[in-house]
Amino acid sequence: MKKKLNTRVRKFVSYTGLLLLLGICAGIVSAQEIRTSREGVIASVGTAQIELAPVNSNTFWLGVRQSGRPEFPKSSFLVDSARDKAVRWQPAKEAGFTGIRTGVGELLVDPQTGQWMLKDGNGQKLISKGSFDSVTGDLDSGSGKINATLGSDGHAIGVYGSGNGTAALLQSEGKARVANGVAQIPYYWCPAGYAVLAVSGNDNVPASWQQKSNSIVWSFPSATADLFLMPAATLREAAKSYADLTGHAPVPPRWAFGYLQSRWGWKNRPYIEDTLKEFRDRHIPVDAFIYDFEWYTTTPDYELPCSGEDNFHDFAWNTNLFPEPRQQIADYKEQGVHFVGIRKPRLGNTANLELIRKKGWDVHGPGTKHDEKYHCRDVDFKNPKFSAWYVKHTVPLLKEGLDGWWDDEGEGTFTTYYYWNLSQADALAKVNRAARLWTLNRAFSPGLQRMGAAAWTGDIHSTWKALAGTPTSLLNWSLAGMPYGACDIGGFSGENPSPEMLSRWMEAGVFFPVMRSHSEISRTPRFPWLYGSEAEAAIRKAIDLRYRLIPYFYSLAHETFDTGVPIMRPLVMEFPTDEKVSNLSDQWLMGSSLMAAPLLQQGGKRSVYLPEGTWYVFGTITALEGNRTMNVTAGLDEIPMYVKAGTILPLGPVIQHTTELPGGPLEVQVYPGKDTGFTLVEDDGATKDYLKSRTRRTAFSWDDSAKRLSWRTEGKYSGPDCFRSVRMVVFGPGKIVEMESPLNLSGSLSAVQVALK
């Protein structure tokens, strides 16, 4: 009885102390309850503590613990180098608040109430009424719930970047989760001028948030709450800070920027090779075939019992398709087609399942989902011993020549894809340490992008509605830290798309970070020639354009790696003061100045909004003044696209696969109107050598008043895939001027005067 009473007393004392911190109860707090450490400032109330510390030059950490001193969280969301303990900070005080100051702003707490505030570097309050205002649960056991309120004056329009769980760019709640093609993450950027990433005590039970009037309330389902606060006046600043915290996305292999043909239902070896021949004979570019179940098993595993089957092969080849896998894959690569194979987060072989259950390597614990019967065979990639076993069995497959993985149905936990990719990265490193990992995942959690991962929007239907909603999902993912988004072009299930729908979907896909089509096994494959000659011609033209844009997109990928700013951007990222684009997502930017407005509904008509400034119709001298909406009609093979005045746009020749680069001269299009520049980045397209500065960078510059294009080429890379000559195309008023010149490799400055008058 006495023991039970003491436990109740301890719980009461712990709970009461925390309520004091959270401002629910008022109390007198002594000066001893604020102290400084090497890392920052710590406030203590009862058994609860709150710590304020800088993470790096642009991010603060605010950590709360129900008992004991806060510790910097060990989370899969955070890159190992995120915390810079050498960052300089100073103590800061204001009207009862105490905290820290860095070059980016101030974070302060009131020890009397537990309230806190965030300021930017100019002293502007970004969060004026922060608090931790409720706690429930068993504090002794370390479980519970903490609610954090981030209150500010105004800015009630919504936030950006929490993932694709809503049908708009502007969002008012974020229930962090992963599902089929859904990734909602515990992050957002607020137009008040800050971004925030929340980390709970368990990455697989993440925090969620909801907007209430001028405040946003975070709910932490744990006994700990960690907020990473990033003063950021713009979405661009937020993207950089978020990438510094969770990891910059590496540059994908160059072939991943081509057209990728996915299929569930590759029938046999002749079927694969006949399909490849059709692509080449019809001059439709393609860089990869992506294979479903059939590459390694004759029958999908959906109907297997939890015990599996003795004759199911988890790590093998279906000899009906690949009787000579190494030779076949090598032959297909000679024709420019890479191999990507599907993987599932489970096993099907009885002996393998018995082993992992005996070892305790199956999935269990908080956050595990069992909504499908096959999840009973899921494996625990987080377990290092299982990961080592998985790597051992994966290495032989990679040695046959696989180029990438298609990771499907990994939503058993919030972080399954993360630890799965870790295992795949370890396996690749044992085969080819220099190679870039490329995986395609059905969802993601923060930090996955730093592996070399892409994500796709899941099993969408073949409808115009699904097509219209895809850009919004991909833009939301761009803002949420996943710059390489894709979808099943043409839709996965439902009725087959009409020729018009597939054509329009392919045209939109030209401007998706990853251009990939796919379909369910019983539907017509998304092979362009199966939808009629008119659609085939329109799709070929679209894919040709995709390949011409690869030098531009690939250079943007290097920019994304360097800065964190995504390739595919909503207009609000580049035009933040234009209220008309605050929630616009059916047209978007690739980079800062190429705007795509593809047809997303049937009928060949749409409206297009041009932001302020002058915009050229792509590839023409037609200049249009912005800040207006116009109606556009486009033929089946036409894509409305516009280039901002003051743009240098590098284009390659039409090629059939990326291994044909350079394939001819680089075409540098100049859309005059203001001084501008662009840096073309080239590397070997396959290895991590670009991390060692083995790149070739050509900085183009346009002097608008002098009508002069100049460039300087520098760098350690000079492989055979580098462009050796440049064809300049300047879209002047009334005429187009074209000239050719060698692309100097010496590092000297080259320049050409353009006669536009």
Structure description:
The chain is α+β, with helices and mostly antiparallel strands and about 750 residues long. The chain has four domains: about 1-245, Immunoglobulin-like, CATH 2.60.40; about 255-565, TIM Barrel, CATH 3.20.20.80; about 570-645, Immunoglobulin-like (Sandwich), CATH 2.60.40; about 660-755, Immunoglobulin-like (Sandwich). Helix content is about 20%, strand content about 30%. It is built from twelve helices and 42 strands. It has a nine-stranded antiparallel beta sheet. It has an eight-stranded parallel beta sheet with strand order 25-24-23-22-21-20-19-26. β40 and β41 form a beta hairpin. α6 crosses α7 (about 415-430) and α9 (about 500-510) runs parallel beside α10. The longest helix has 21 residues, at about 1-20. The protein is globular and about 75 Å long. Residues about 1-30 have low confidence and may be disordered.
